[in-house]
Design brief:
The complex is a heterodimer of chains A (about 70) and B (about 210).
Chain A (H helix, E strand, L loop, with lengths): L2 E3 L4 E3 L2 E3 L4 E3 L2 H10 L5 H8 L3 H19 L1
Antiparallel strand pairs in A: 1-4, 2-3
Chain B lengths: L7 E5 L2 E4 L3 E7 L6 E10 L5 E4 L10 E9 L7 E8 L5 E8 L7 E2 L6 E7 L7 E12 L9 E6 L2 E2 L5 E3 L9 E3 L10 E7 L11
Antiparallel strand pairs in B: 1-2, 3-16, 4-11, 5-10, 6-9, 6-11, 7-8, 7-10, 11-15, 12-13, 12-16, 14-15
The chains are: A alpha+beta (about 70), B mainly beta (about 210).
Amino acid sequence: MPTVKLRSALSHDGVAYKPGDTFEGDQELIDTLIAMGTAIDPKAIEETTGVSLEDAEAQAKAIVDEANDRLL
Amino acid sequence: MTVQRNELRQVDRSERQYAGGYLHRQKWTDPGAASATALKSGQATSNSATTSVTTFSAQPDFPRNLVITPGGTTGDVAAGNVTVTGTNIRDAVITETFAFTADQSAATTGNKAFKTVTSVVFPIQDGNAATFNIGTGVKLGLDRKHSEAAVIDAYIDGTRETTAATMAFSASAVESNTASTNTAPNGSRDVVVITMSTDVTDAPQTTS
């Protein structure tokens, strides 16, 4: 099943998910969550920035890691 | 006169289809009474999280419309749309949004006939104590599309209804074709509706 990153909190069948969590569900449900703004549309991010969500997160992690290294 | 390709079709021995209109008979055996809690009773919601539901106590007995009713502390109901996803009478995925106003306590009645419901998503509410019932209505799903509200006759346990059934129609979306008879279903009487359809299709009839 496809996965999506959550922008805001979700209670799914009684299970709590926090913002930033990855949610797995069927495509129709994910489409609904994206439309409601609860989940982040990875395609929209890539179309807007030219960078996929995964690449953006990897770049952000690299920057944070580099900053942490400099602090040490 | 030239009959164009696909304008006339015989699906099986019981139905000859014609794009200009043909009589169609659909039968429901003992369709259940409308039930406000047929699928879910007292679904909790939240003022800090979207709520999604994919497990239900039951599915509609026949493709039919849905009714969502606020409960609990209805002062906590937020303005917004509840989104229902499922399948129609031809097993295609469909969605319908049920609009609610702030503090709404009355039910919102859907118009599409759902064969199954796979998910219901509630937006963030104004408080934590609003609950929702998800149930079925009296609009039975027709298995043919129509170009008009062309209901010819309705029969309850074989007796013709003197007041015509109320019909909703769509020439493009089969799930938006529904009929509600003057005598409501109660789980123990058969319903037959005769309509004039213009839908030329290979989809099977669902008389049961």
